[in-house]
Amino acid sequence: MAVSVIGTGKSGVAAAELLVKSGARPFVSESGSVSSETVDTLRQLGAPFEEGGHTERVFDAELCVVSPGIPQRVPVIREMHARGIPVISEIELAYWFCPARIIGITGTDGKTTTATLIHRICEAEGERQKYRAFSVGNIGIPFSSKVLEMSPKEIAVLELSSYQLEGCFSFRPNITVLTNITPDHMDRYGGSIEAYAAAKFRIHAQQGAGDTLIYNHDDPMLRAHFDREEPWPFRVVRVSLRAETLADAPGDFVSVEEGEIVLRTSGSTERFMRVDEIMKPGFRGDHNLYNVLSSVAAASAAGVSPETMRRVLAEFGGVEHRQEFTGHACGLDWINDSKATNVNALRQALQSVPAGMVLIAGGRDKGNDYSVIADIVREKVACLVAIGESRQLIADAFRGIVTVLPAASLAEAVDLARRNARPGGSVLFSPACSSFDMFRDFEDRGRQFKQLVRELQ
User: Please, what are the domains in the chain?
Assistant: First the structure.
């Protein structure tokens, strides 16, 4: 079978390798340049490729696998559709080969923390039950790169972006988690949150009898989508911070009551664990409590023992680049929240850090509406240092609300934050934008920030 792979990022290369190993004939096409490392990999695979544009050869295919960063509107993808060539994502491709049970996690915020927690819980249970748990997808490891290692007794924990879900058609997770839906990637979805949400909802489109869907009942858009009189064909589990709102609701839930996590399954309610056994410095806030509730619901649906869940939750301290305490330097606490690539993630970080902070924000804007956080910025931020392509946009958005200082580099931003922070205060690095104007990715951005803080120490 001839297959065109569009894009030579990690997922594109992994898809090409999976196709070669499965006996297909991939042709890899890249509009930009291909790194020397990728060239070596493709040559070792024996996969032909092109760079610097897409030639007619790319349409000599029965199937097209597109990398998640490439929108459906680009000419080469539109032409694929016009010629009747099916276009799928790398996630869909890997699913065709996956024998393992799948837990899929999507949403605007909390995906990485929830996926990490679920993976660690399943991994710990796997050590006891003699199976493996794989952490793949948007978390950084392509699904295609691991799928051939999996067996039916194992678990694949997939963090999934809206971009990856756009090209999913038969993909059917056994367990699905939706954390929340707030405006993000509006540049890709024409400013329509409904179009963005529709891409997210593809995660449950093929679920049916025997499957489980878990969603945040406190999120208005998710509640409007899932609360209906006609029952869904799969089991639904609601999570909420307010158990009283679910007491009279049908079905199962995981919630919080009097400082304890409570689970209702098949009409029976049990107290699971105290919240203060889990939340700690570096891992705190309501948003993280939602992540915990979703993880408990997912792990429970996967058959993990309560003892394993309690042990992992008690030990968990958060994930890198998400409200990560970086250190104490120059009399200040420094917090790395590079994973915050939208306004809602920034709002969550602002809620968890004491007032009077210096905020470093900015990068490549994704159609953000900064006005929705004006009140909390006024309340919590003493000085804002703006970086990246969006620094003028941020300066305009918060003019008259807070002092805004532009910085040409992250190093300059850190220095300005140091000089303008109150003694004993905090510096929060929470960009609310993508990293691609100045950095390879949000991880590169976060690690550079942490290195600058180490130099201050």
Answer: 2-85 (3.40.50.720), 94-315 (3.40.1190.10), 324-456 (3.90.190.20)
